[in-house]
């Protein structure tokens, strides 16, 4: 079947197209349409045959019930046994909107639509295109998310087309959705009402209107052996093709941990994806990095979540590492979906960061224009198991100077580029917990310890690699002495690289 795709302007809805779409629904066909949460795959909710087609198009198990979408509150009464008083209150606050309520159904709703259940899920979406389609289609439109079962829900018409082109009659393209995660599901058949799926209408928002609200315990405890009350929540939904892992912890520590793992995995030859936030995206140095949204406006995270997961499927990465978000407000829904995508595989950032002793290595010489930058340049060329920021500092640097020309020449001969180098003075900032300070000779180490008493981890390079000779300055001496100095530094730096790698080797296996 050829799928017709029609662009719709939300502010000026083309009635001819809506009538065409409505009659497809009335004749038992399938029309995908935008809602404010995700795109839905619409069918006539009161037609059992249409429900069968929906399951077939999605490849969805038929015990997973569909949500019936309505556009007018007065239509609710016709499909449910009774409408509790409290529902008017809830509807007044949250309908139309991203909230689905579950009721005991009446005989008008076929069991095909409800996956064999005696209850029915009902939602009144806010999107104008959705509302007009529902009315054009007869008032009751069943609509699961318009993705192939098991793939991330679609937030654009393009996503729908990727999954369902050729399998459904029509797609109404209303652009990107607003919210990006599916509606909150609230079971009204129990007291107190119970949240079966978190969404943009949060527990706090509901409690403000109706008081006590329960939460399905399978949502709270990952290890629950009970089946979730919303049948669809038991499936490994929202799953990207790659193995996904969430790295939980303070944002800064999580960034360090993800960088650490990504560096390691890339070194081992894997293609790594990273789900970053606006606040962290610039800090990553390896991997395919995608920004999911801003921590200060988590709505943006919800909006981009499925798009980013789909993009990673295209990238064919082996692993995806994701930052975590606080589980409050919309964050509860975000973490529910990310958690499902990751099969609840979560690593604690602090468990990872503690496996790397140093993140920054600072070589120190007198004026930072020869020995220290040579050591730094050589270390940067070594194959290192972990990522380090490597730099050179001088004890006395009054103003920035270029590299000593003879050092430049030595490095050039070893094919090491040094253009743009400028000397920088050692300062208090260099003594972070994760910094290893390596002085070129003992007198320099003494001076550092005098000037910054009790600070940092300071050694001579010679001492750190169990060498026997210091590396004194060869300033003004012969070419041969310069060359010997270079050889000595090179030998020590290679040993240093080995030592760092040796320490990192066993720890790395614990990452995944
Ligand atoms: O935001 C949304 O709700 C989107 C848009 C299109 O409206 N729809 C959506 O539908 O997410 P779907 O089919 O992907 O997810 C429906 C969820 C499933 O987890 C299903 O098990 C649950 O709702 N559900 C439906 N009827 C139910 C019922 N009677 N009792 C318990 N859970 C039910
Ligand atoms: Mg779905």
What does this structure look like?
With 512 residues, the protein is α/β, with parallel strands linked by helices. The protein has 16 helices and 20 strands. It has helices at 15-26, 48-58, 85-94, 128-136, 157-164, 203-210, 217-220, 251-267, 298-315, 330-341, 349-353, 371-380, 405-413, 442-451, 461-464, 479-508; strands at 4-7, 31-33, 40-44, 67-69, 99-104, 119-123, 141-142, 170-173, 184-187, 194-197, 214-215, 243-248, 272-276, 288-291, 319-323, 346-348, 360-365, 389-394, 435-439, 457-460. The strands form 3 sheets. Strands 1-8-2-3-7-4-6-5-9-10-11 form an 11-stranded mixed β-sheet, sandwiched between helices. The chain has a 5-stranded parallel β-sheet with strand order 14-13-15-12-16, with helices on both faces. The two termini are 44 Å apart.
The whole-number mean of residue pLDDT values reads: 94
Distance between the termini: 44 Å
Q: How large is the count of helical segments?
A: 16
* Portion in helices: 25-40%
Low-confidence stretches: none
List keywords for this structure.
binds threonylcarbamoyladenylate; 16 helices; 512 residues; five-stranded parallel β-sheet; alpha/beta; eleven-stranded mixed β-sheet; binds magnesium ion
In short:
The chain is α/β, with parallel strands linked by helices. It has 16 helices and 20 strands. Helix 1 crosses helix 4, helix 9 packs parallel to helix 10 (330-341) and helix 12 (371-380) crosses helix 16 (479-508).
């Amino acid at each position: 079947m050829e799928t017709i795709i029609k662009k719709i302007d939300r502010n000026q809805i083309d009635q001819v197209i809506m009538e065409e779409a409505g009659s497809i629904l009335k004749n038992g066909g399938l029309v995908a349409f935008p809602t404010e949460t995700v795109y839905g795959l619409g069918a006539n909710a009161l037609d059992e045959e249409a429900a069968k087609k929906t399951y077939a198009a999605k490849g969805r198990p038929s015990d997973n019930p569909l949500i019936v979408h309505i556009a007018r509150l007065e239509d609710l009464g016709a499909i449910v046994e009774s409408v509790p008083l409290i529902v008017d209150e809830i509807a007044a606050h949250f309908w139309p909107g991203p909230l689905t309520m579950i009721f005991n159904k009446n005989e008008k709703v076929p069991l095909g639509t409800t996956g064999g259940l005696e209850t029915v899920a009902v939602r009144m979406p806010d999107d104008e295109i959705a509302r007009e389609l529902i009315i054009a289609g007869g008032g009751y439109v069943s609509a699961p998310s318009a993705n192939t079962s098991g793939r991330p829900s679609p937030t654009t018409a393009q996503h729908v087309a990727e999954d369902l082109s050729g399998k459904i009659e029509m797609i109404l393209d209303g652009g990107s959705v607003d919210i990006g995660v599916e509606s909150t599901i609230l079971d009204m058949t129990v007291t107190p009402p119970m949240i079966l799926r978190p969404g943009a209408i949060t527990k706090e928002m509901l409690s403000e209107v109706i008081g006590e609200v329960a939460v399905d315990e399978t949502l709270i405890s990952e290890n629950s052996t009970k089946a979730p009350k919303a049948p669809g929540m038991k499936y490994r939904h929202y799953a990207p093709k790659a193995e996904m892992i969430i790295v939980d912890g303070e944002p800064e520590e999580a960034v360090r941990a993800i960088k650490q793992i990504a560096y390691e995995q890339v070194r081992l030859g894997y293609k790594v994806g990273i789900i970053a936030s606006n606040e962290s995206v610039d800090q990553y140095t390896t991997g395919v990095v995608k920004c999911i949204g801003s921590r200060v406006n988590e709505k943006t995270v919800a909006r981009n979540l499925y798009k980013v997961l789909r993009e990673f499927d295209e990238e064919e990465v082996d692993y995806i590492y994701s930052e975590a978000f606080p589980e409050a407000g919309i964050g509860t829904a975000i973490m529910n979906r990310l958690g499902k995508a990751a099969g609840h595989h979560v690593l604690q950032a602090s468990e990872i960061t503690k496996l790397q002793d140093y993140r920054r290595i600072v070589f120190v010489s007198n004026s930072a224009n020869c020995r220290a930058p040579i050591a730094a340049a050589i270390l940067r060329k070594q194959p290192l198991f972990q990522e380090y920021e490597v730099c050179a500092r001088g004890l006395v640097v009054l103003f920035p100077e270029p590299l000593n020309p003879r050092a430049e020449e030595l490095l050039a001969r070893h094919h090491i580029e040094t253009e743009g180098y400028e000397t920088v003075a050692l300062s208090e900032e260099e003594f972070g917990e994760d910094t290893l300070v390596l002085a070129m000779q003992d007198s320099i180490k003494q001076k550092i310890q005098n000037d910054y008493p009790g600070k940092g981890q300071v050694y001579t390079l010679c001492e750190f690699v169990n060498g026997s000779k210091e590396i004194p300055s060869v300033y003004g001496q012969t070419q041969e002495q310069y060359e010997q100095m270079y050889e000595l530094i090179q030998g020590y730096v290679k040993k240093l690289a080995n030592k760092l790698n040796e320490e990192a080797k066993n720890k790395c296996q614990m990452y995944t």
